Amino acid sequence: MTPVPTFTLPVKPKSRPRISLSRENIFNIVIFSDLHCGEDESTFGPEQDRKPTKVMGKILDFEEPDFVVINSDLITGENTMIENSTQYVSQIVSPMVAKNYHWASTYGNHYTQYNLSREARFLEHSPKKVGGVTNYWLPVYRSDDSAAPAAILYFFDSQGGEKYQRWRFAKWIPNWVEASAVKWFRRERECIEKRRGVVPSLAFVHIPPTPLLQLQKKMFPRKGGKDGHFPGLNDDVPVADQGEGRWGHKDKEFVKALLETKWLNSVYSGHGHVKSWCGTWAGERDMEKTKKEPLLCLVKHTGYGGYGNWERGSRVVQLKFGEESDKDVKEMNVDTWVRLESGDVIQTVSLNETYGSNIYPADDVEGGYMIRIYFNE
């Protein structure tokens, strides 16, 4: 058995760039997802891999964000070798590097295969004895010299795939945020609350948590179902959740930990390529019951690898904070929309206490509340 290569952490926590609001109490995040580069090196692959880089560059020019998140599946590990996968990662992050944007990433189900080591490709690393690789958090400050964070961004590794160099005997990696990562999350959250009090937060995890599947079953009984309460593309039916298939729903502890997190506004996931809508926790429209639960958002397919022939794009999340002199200084308002490769903006919604009870007007696109089909060659 070939040993897994060892690496040193490329960016130590103390040397991370400080992330601050670059506009007047506003922080814009662009989320890219499911790029799936590296699917074929000998034929269509190189040209296909150049396309998501162009998409990312266009959207960054349109949005000029304060921060970028790549919510996993940068590469398709089944078709990528350990010796060349870093080349794909370098190509993928080049738009952020060229434009000097801070960025972060999660890992999902395409990073570990027989031919590819998960440990060899990490962009950030969990503490020792914490399952998965990309379990970490980043503070967002009001200014470069502020002491207390305005918000916390949590990142989780939903795992999946096959163990490196293992053909048999427990070769599969569980595709959920496992217990050790949940324990770490609770411990970190408690430490933050003791030092800074409760801080508003967002969470990013590639494979959606199970409550999103439960919502879809309740609200969208058929493929492509439409509902003005939850505008967006809904052509992945059913939503593939954590612990899907023969594993069952194994993210109960993770779901419980998310519910316990005070002022967690919303959770963002990719994984399915033909979906981009936000929902309430369990589909309830009685907001007295659900207003303290985080909302669940599906982002937009950015890459040309993998399945799906809808127009590519990105989910954008805008955080707005009150003035430091306000008594509600910790209040965080969240708006989100989808920016398409063409430059069009659709599905603009406010992720507030009434989301899920209001009906949004249809976008001026084919399919009413749903995003239009745009077949790219």
Automatic annotation (TrEMBL):
InterPro entries: Calcineurin-like_PHP, Metallo-depent_PP-like. It comes from the Eukaryota. It holds the Pfam family Metallophos. GO terms for molecular function: hydrolase activity, acting on ester bonds. Coiled coil: none annotated. One of its GO terms (cellular component) is cytoplasm. Residues 28-243 form the Calcineurin-like phosphoesterase domain. This is Metallo-dependent phosphatase-like protein.
